[in-house]
Every structure is written in structure tokens, then in C-alpha cells.
Amino acid sequence: MDPTDAWYFKTYMDAGEYGFGLQAMPLVPLNDCPRNAYYMDGVFVASDGRPYVRSNMICVYESYGGDIGWRHSESPITGMEIREARPKVTLVARMAASVANYDYIVDWEFQTDGLIRVKVGLSGILMVKGASYTHVNQFQPKQDTFGTLLSENVLGVIHDHYMTFHLDLDVDGANNSFVKVHLSRQETDHNATPRRSYLKATRHVARTEKDARIKLKLYDPYEFHVINADKTTRVGNPVGYKVVPAGTAASLLDPADPPQLRGAFTNNQIWVTPRNEGEEWAGGLFVYQSRGEDTLAVWTERDRPIENKDIVLWYTLGFHHIPSQEDFPIMPTVSSSFDLKPVNFFERNPILGSPPNLEKDLPVCAAAASA
């Protein structure tokens, strides 16, 4: 985000220019992944086209961090001594890529209630620049340094990170629809109730691509469902999954700024397109010299039909990064995520029958020997 001559061109497309797969790194047992992890090899392609194998590229493990899957206790005044709880256990698949100075950790978490959580962690070495300053009192009034003084003569430049996920969901079949569920305040008849307002959910099926371009708004809330209108529950609700955003960021750059033109997939947090094998990467097939002519933003200008079609949902997870001294020289991991959550996909809570943990089920750590 530094527009000066020595820096303005540093707008890297880590996946398109370097490759998350090509830059994937072997995981370190016991540190990148826990003791119970199972490690999988990765097959890569050499420059001459021949395949080669690298070990420990993906780890898969069961995680139980003390979270609760569900619980309920009856109040003592009912006379019913009911106190039930179930642990939440998650299956995690993890990989890490080191793209030059930055490290990215990508987790796919599969929960027993059907929820899928996609989490991205950022770590590694900050992109820094040399400076003449050794103390912030040397800055001139109203001077824009484009970052934070992290150490003597070292500036950490303000920047963003965006990861766009291509989600071909196929909820209970290939043909799906994208539904925007708007939550709004409705006024009441003051003569009929002491309440002044209530909440109403209004569903709108997106017909075309432009109708499915979504910018998240805290005070104008929506849910975003992908449904199969041809498959319903016993009470008639269409089966579906919904995208549940967590902390994210939106680009603040001028839309005509060169890096924003080729990164125009960050113009929205959600897009929906008909599935097309030629549209696999949000930044286009060739991003090195891209001027933004082959991006998600350009494809969706065709405004193709997406209702009851084989569709792809694109979700962009973003980070604004104002560096601080704690980030230097190696940055503690910062993470964010989004969820894919069942919505009327099951007839009821799918983990009601899961067993509780008992004392005999859990390992007990004890000293192997004493001095």
C-alpha cells in the first residue's frame, strides 16, 4: 500500500503468481500438527513434467479442545434431574504454504453436526522497508510513512490479504439456487400488542449473477443459502447449506487502481456463477500481466442465469494488516474463518445420538518413572 517508486508495484498474487500448491511446505510433526495427526504425501510436477512426491504435506487429525457440541440442564424447580452435554469433536485437514516471506495455514474443519469451517492463518516474516527513522518522534507533522516503525530503521507497510474460495457445493444434487434471506425490522400495530417491532425474514432467490453480488453489511443483515429446491424435508423446507461469514475485510482501494483491477474479485465478499471449467481462479488464468480483463468481476458482467443451475459460490476472506511491533520479526499467527452450515439439510439435530465422554474414554497423563 506504499505508492512510492520503490514500492508501488509490490502487489503480489500469491496463488496466481507463485502457487499455493507449489509453495506448500512439509508440516513439522508435534508443532504444525498434534501427536495424533496422520500425514499425507503430496504429488508435485517438476519443470520437465515428471511427478515427484513430498512427504508430510497434509495432516489430518481429530481435535477435541473442550468445546461443547450440545447441552441442556433442567432447572431444579422442575424436579427433573436432567443434565446432558456432549463434546464437540472435529476432523481437521491442514496444509501450509510459505510464499516468499509469508506463511499461510489453511484448515478445513469437519464437525459432526455437518458444519464445515474453513480457517486461514497468517504468519511468517513481514514485508518491511528500510527507513532513516529510529524513533517515532522523528516523523514530520502530517507525514505519511505508509506503515508502522517496528524497530530502528525498519518500517512495516500497511497492507491487505485476500483469499477467495471457489465452492462448488452441489447440495444434495448438482442443480442449486442461491437465496438471500433478508432480516428486517417490522413495525407492529400498537393497539394489538405492547411490542413496537419484530424481526421478519424475507427470502429472495437470485435469478442471475448480478443479483448474487454481495457486500456484507452489519446493519442490513442477510443470510446466504444455497438450496436444492427439488429436495425437501418432511415438513417441506428445501435442503440447503448457508455461508456464515466471520471476521473479514473489504478492499478500500480505488476501483481503477491497477492492483484493484486485477484483484477485482475483492469488490464483493460473495459472488455466484454458473459452473464453468474455464473459470476456476478468481483472478483469471494468467495474472502476471493482467489488467483485469479475465476476473470474476468480468465474468459476472454477462449476468448469466443461476437459478436451479450447477452453480459455484465464491467467498472472499480478507484481512487488513496494520503492522505492530509484536509482528516483528516473525508474526504470531492471526486467523479468520467462515462456515458452511446446514440449513434444513437434516430432519433434526444430527448429533443428538452422539455418546458422552466417560472417564474411561480419556487418556490420563502420568509420569513414566520417578527419581
From TrEMBL:
Reported cofactor(s): Cu cation
InterPro entries in alphabetical order: Cu_Am_Ox_Cu-bd (IPR049947), Cu_amine_oxidase (IPR000269), Cu_amine_oxidase_C (IPR015798), Cu_amine_oxidase_C_sf (IPR036460)
Post-translational modification: Topaquinone (TPQ) is generated by copper-dependent autoxidation of a specific tyrosyl residue.
GO terms assigned for molecular function: copper ion binding; primary methylamine oxidase activity; quinone binding
Cofactor binding annotation: Contains 1 topaquinone per subunit.
Positions bearing 2',4',5'-topaquinone: 102
Superkingdom of the organism of origin: Eukaryota
Top-rank EC class of the record's enzyme: oxidoreductase
Active site, per annotation: 14, 102
Xref: Pfam families: Cu_amine_oxid
Domain Copper amine oxidase catalytic: 1-352
Family as reported in the entry's similarity comment: Belongs to the copper/topaquinone oxidase family.
Protein's recorded name: Amine oxidase
Organism, scientific name: Vanilla planifolia
